[in-house]
Amino acid sequence: MDAKNIFFIGFMGAGKTTLAKKLANRLNREFIDTDKEIEKTWNMSIPQIFSEHGELFFRTQESLLLNQLIKKKQNSIISVGGGLPCHNNNMKLMNDNGLTFYLKRPTKELFQRLRNVKQSRPLIQALSDSELSAFIEDKIKERSVFYEGAKVILTREQQNVKSLAELLSKL
Ligand SMILES: Nc1ncnc2c1ncn2[C@@H]1O[C@H](COP(=O)(O)OP(=O)(O)OP(=O)(O)O)[C@@H](O)[C@H]1O
Ligand SMILES: O=C(O)C1=C[C@@H](O)[C@@H](O)[C@H](O)C1
Ligand SMILES: [Mg+2]
């Protein structure tokens, strides 16, 4: 029997892409990352898409892709861009059509991780450390209402392949 798609959601740097890829390998299910799909389609990096076409264009591409994935895919493990759940009714779409897992992480930890990978993330690329810290705090406040609407909010301890495989076997 086909299983539902699983969507990993959460703030930039939460580890959605990393964990979704590992879990898909373990469960022998297809791995899809919305950022990577959009980069492939446009043959451009995310920072290039933002600078040449703007954020609104990117958000439209995310929503179009999400709608296509929902129609075409089953059994897939999908990591979505950090902002995708917070635009265009996408959170409801994912909840209505799959299992949503929120990778909730403390802001301090997100800051430590994002400091090292700012360049590939246009919204934080140009921020100093103190600006980055403030940005994370503010954005999480703004976005939590969407993220916290996930079917499952994963604690830090649950954010590993073993715990997730166990959790899924019980659902
Ligand atoms: N469990 C972990 N422990 C330590 N570092 C991690 C862990 N998971 C991911 N990272 C690191 O954190 C950074 C961000 O991870 P990743 O790209 O998976 O996040 P993301 O949630 O997909 O972010 P985005 O929303 O920007 O796509 C990477 O440098 C990755 O190596
Ligand atoms: O949180 C966000 O708005 C983003 C997260 C990344 O996954 C990318 O989708 C992009 O850098 C924007
Ligand atoms: Mg990612």
TrEMBL record:
Cofactor: Mg(2+)
Cofactor binding annotation: Binds 1 Mg(2+) ion per subunit.
The entry's keywords: Amino-acid biosynthesis, Aromatic amino acid biosynthesis, ATP-binding, Cytoplasm, Kinase, Magnesium, Metal-binding, Nucleotide-binding, Transferase
Reactions catalysed according to its record: shikimate + ATP = 3-phosphoshikimate + ADP + H(+)
One function term, GO molecular function aspect: ATP binding
Function noted in UniProt: Catalyzes the specific phosphorylation of the 3-hydroxyl group of shikimic acid using ATP as a cosubstrate.
Highest taxon listed in the record's lineage: Bacteria
Protein residues bound to ATP: G13, A14, G15, K16, T17, T18, R121, Q159
Subcellular location: Cytoplasm
Description of how the protein assembles with itself and partners: Monomer.
Residues annotated as binding substrate: D35, R59, G82, R143
GO CC aspect terms: cytosol
Pathway: Metabolic intermediate biosynthesis; chorismate biosynthesis; chorismate from D-erythrose 4-phosphate and phosphoenolpyruvate: step 5/7
Predominant location: cytoplasm
Protein's gene: aroK
Protein name as it appears in the record: Shikimate kinase
GO biological process: amino acid biosynthetic process; aromatic amino acid family biosynthetic process; chorismate biosynthetic process
Annotated binding of Mg(2+), by residue: T17
EC number in record: 2.7.1.71
Family listed: Belongs to the shikimate kinase family.
Enzyme class at the top of the EC tree: transferase
